[in-house]
Amino acid sequence: MADIEHPDFNPDRLDKDQLIIKRYPIKRYPMQTLEEVKEYLDGCIVYWRGERKKSENIDPRIMASHYIDAFQSTRISIFGEELPE
């Protein structure tokens, strides 16, 4: 996933919405092609896999697993395959 900040990211605001925008940067907003959608989904899946792996507590691991499942489900619905481990 490209390391390009979302156009709405404001580093002076640290509320939940800004952290979500920072966490999931995309090249263009809104996405223009299926390749950009796939890149976004793959980046989100990889991010949450990393969060799940590094977490020492069960609750964040469960939350990460739910996000992974949701992004994988979307990826399967659109592209017919999941992102391998």
Written description of the protein model:
With 85 residues, the chain is an all-alpha fold. 60% of the residues lie in helices and 0% in strands. It has helices at residues 16-23, 34-54, 58-79. Helix 2 runs antiparallel to helix 3 (58-79). The longest helix has 22 residues, at 58-79. The radius of gyration is 14 Å and the shape is elongated. The model has no long low-confidence stretch (mean pLDDT 78).
**Mean pLDDT over all positions:** 78
In what range is the share of β-strand residues?
A: under 5%
Please give the largest β-sheet: none
| Strand segment tally | 0
Structural class: mainly alpha
Shape: elongated
Task: Describe the secondary structure blueprint for this structure.
Blueprint: H1 16-23, H2 34-54, H3 58-79
Helix pairs in contact: 2-3
Summarize the structure.
With 85 residues, this protein is mostly helical. 60% of the residues lie in helices and 0% in strands.
Which characteristics define this entry?
mainly alpha, 0% strand
